[in-house]
UniProtKB/TrEMBL annotation:
Biased composition (Basic and acidic residues): 16-35
InterPro entries per record: dGTPase (IPR006261), dGTPase-like (IPR050135), dNTPase_2 (IPR023023), HD/PDEase_dom (IPR003607), HD_domain (IPR006674), PHydrolase_assoc_dom (IPR026875)
Coiled coil is among the record's keywords: no
Classification via NCBIfam families: dGTP_triPase (TIGR01353), PRK01286.1-1 (NF002326), PRK01286.1-3 (NF002328)
Keywords: Hydrolase
Keyword Hydrolase (UniProt): yes
Species of the source: Rhodopseudomonas faecalis
Pfam families assigned to the protein according to its UniProt record, in alphabetical order: HD, HD_assoc
MF terms (GO), sorted A to Z: dGTPase activity
All copies of domain HD, residue ranges: 68-216
Family statement drawn from the similarity comment of this UniProt entry: Belongs to the dGTPase family. Type 2 subfamily.
Protein name, as recorded: Deoxyguanosinetriphosphate triphosphohydrolase-like protein
Length: 403
């Protein structure tokens, strides 16, 4: 078991003080509860599927582009680097980093948009809620319970790594203000209260900011590789212009591939250092003596300082216009949305098109209809890109090439 030593900060999550699991299990003799959670995520079916789920470029556009799996691994590396400097529990941090995208459907955000539109009148689709559903219900690996039976701290972090979902009075926060907290999270929370009103642990907050750092860095790398922009186009972002100038001064004859790699490395180091420094300043002000005091704070402890936060927003704006909304990418994503939409509609119109294991066991008509929609949602959300295309070819005469 991971040793409990003075090296862990008092505000870190202590596995010996975990709030436990939804279903009681005997403790492991060799692993902490959080290490056990991390191992369960790694061995899950949903984690393996991330290998063939789109990050930005679909699976057959090139072997070197990120997938959801490689993105999750990069998030885990960055998250552990931050956790180590802040003396947090690295196992919990890694578990959350690896699990944060388990609920993503095929074709990345295009698939999520399509499923959300299909389910607009039935609560929509939210990938965080789907991640929770995967680890609490959809994985079938154990004889006495569904899901992975992860610890309270891991489930909390999956749901709240981007901040509280509600006010103490139940008012939805953030992007849930307009449509409310997803029903899947609300229903689970009634049975196993995740304190949706509070901030999550520092380990969860670290996983959240590591996701942003990984996105910024590897999407620059993939965008350059795809030829959607050039290195020198990034000079419109002052932070990156300074980094490129420093790289060129140190290595005046560096080839473009190594120059790009050096920029990505510098950016990751800069953002990690900035996040650690800001966290240390906020923790010094709060002086938390426990993970509970971190959860009860009135602000996140893990964040970028203002000047780096502004630069990071500029990077995201650049990537939005030059990469995510590039016509080459949008053409493929529109076709991908069509694939998901048509699959959903076909399964609704012809329930027999679903595999036998996914057919509902019907009772009353209203319950049967709701159950069928849930099964269709879960079936499509679990698909990889190639499997979604295979299913579409099975059911339709023509299927987009996604190129």
């Amino acid at each position: 078991m991971q040793a409990m030593t003075a090296d862990r900060a008092p505000y870190a999550c202590d596995p010996e003080l975990s709030r436990g699991r939804r279903h009681d299990e005997p403790p492991s003799r060799t692993r902490s509860p959080f290490r056990r959670d991390c191992d369960r995520v790694i061995h899950s079916t949903a984690f393996r599927r991330l290998k063939h789920k789109t990050q930005v470029f679909v699976f057959h556009e090139g072997d070197h582009y990120r997938t959801r799996l490689t993105h999750s691994l990069e998030v885990a590396q960055i998250a552990r680097a931050i956790a180590r400097q802040l003396r947090l529990d690295e196992d919990l941090t890694e578990a959350l980093a690896l699990a944060h995208d388990l609920g993503h459907p095929p074709f990345g955000h295009a698939g999520e948009r399509a499923l959300d539109a299909c389910l607009r009148d039935h609560g929509g689709f939210d990938h965080n809620a789907q991640s929770l559903r995967v680890v609490t219900a959809l994985e079938h690996r154990y004889p006495t319970f569904d899901g992975l039976n992860l610890s309270w701290e891991t489930l909390e972090g999956i749901v709240k790594h981007n901040g509280p979902l509600i006010e103490r009075d139940g008012t939805p926060l953030g992007h849930y203000r307009e449509r409310g907290v997803p029903l899947g999270i609300v229903e689970f929370n009634r049975d196993f209260d995740l304190d949706l009103w509070s901030f999550a642990s520092l380990e969860a907050q670290v996983a959240g900011i590591a996701d942003d750092i990984a996105y910024d860095a590897h999407d620059i790398d993939d965008g350059l590789r795809a030829g959607l922009f050039r290195l020198d186009d990034l000079r419109e972002i002052p932070l990156l212009a300074e980094m490129l100038a420093a790289i060129d001064a140190r290595y005046p004859h560096l080839d473009p591939v190594r120059r790009a790699a050096e920029l990505v490395r510098e950016l990751i180091s800069c953002l990690i250092g900035a996040a650690v420094g800001e966290a240390q300043r906020r923790l010094e002000r709060l002086q938390p003596r426990s993970a509970a005091e971190v959860r009860g704070a009135n602000e996140a402890m893990i964040a970028f300082p203002p000047e780096i936060a502004a630069a990071e927003k500029m990077i995201k704006r650049f990537l939005w216009t030059r990469m995510y909304r590039a016509e080459r990418v949008m053409t493929v994503m529109r076709d991908a949305e069509t694939v998901v939409t048509e699959l959903f509609q076909r399964y609704c119109d012809d329930p027999g098109a679903l595999p036998p294991d996914w057919l509902p066991a019907c009772g009353p008509i209203a319950e049967c209809e709701a159950d069928r929609l849930r099964r269709i949602r879960n079936f499509i959300a679990g698909m990889t890109d190639p499997y979604a295309l295979t299913e579409h070819r099975r059911l339709f005469d023509t299927t987009p090439d996604l190129r």
